[in-house]
Prior knowledge:
Pfam families: CoaE (PF01121). By secondary structure, this protein is α/β, with parallel strands linked by helices. It has helices at 14-24, 31-38, 44-53, 66-73, 77-105, 118-122, 137-148, 152-160, 165-171, 182-206; strands at residues 3-8, 27-30, 111-114, 129-134, 174-177.
Amino acid sequence: MPLVALTGGIASGKSTIAARLAEHGAVIVDADRIVRDVQSAGSPVLAAIAGAFGERMLRPDGSLDRAALGAEVFGDDAAIARLNAIVHPAVRAESARRFAEAFAADPRAVVVYDVPLLVEARVDDPWELIVVAHAPAEVRERRLVELRGLTAAEAAARLASQVPDEARLRIADVVIHTDGTVDDTLRQVDELWERLTEHLDRRAARA
């Protein structure tokens, strides 16, 4: 039951890697999707966020105003810690449920947890493998400006708000370098998949 963590900084190409792994047959569990799900209108998590940061965090329809929440906590370590204390336990519980569901459906599934905040929140989980998508900061900053429409200052602030690249690279079992062509990135993912499946076959033969 291989559980693989896939992480990387903003604009590191993580989504491209996850999509390729899915093409190979991996089950992708998206941490960002889980965050949105546990913060849905009427959820206990959303009620706790409104209690901690004010009802102004809610839109008129009862959903989370993500822009308001982001503005409230951005750059404020204490506020981020309060928010994480609300959100992270719910995300951990829901991700565990989704992992179990995937393995119940197929005990030999390769489950990939696409998780931006691995270093900050989940590094000690029992991962079979930690894969880090990596491109130099200047490449990612350029992507944020050219592909996502941020200003240079906004892009730099986003990068500065995340853990340093060195912290992610320190925990990596595999680094996929994404500063080349897309084909080069996909080739590395294909090689990773081959290694994973060979590892599974060897383990199955020993069982």
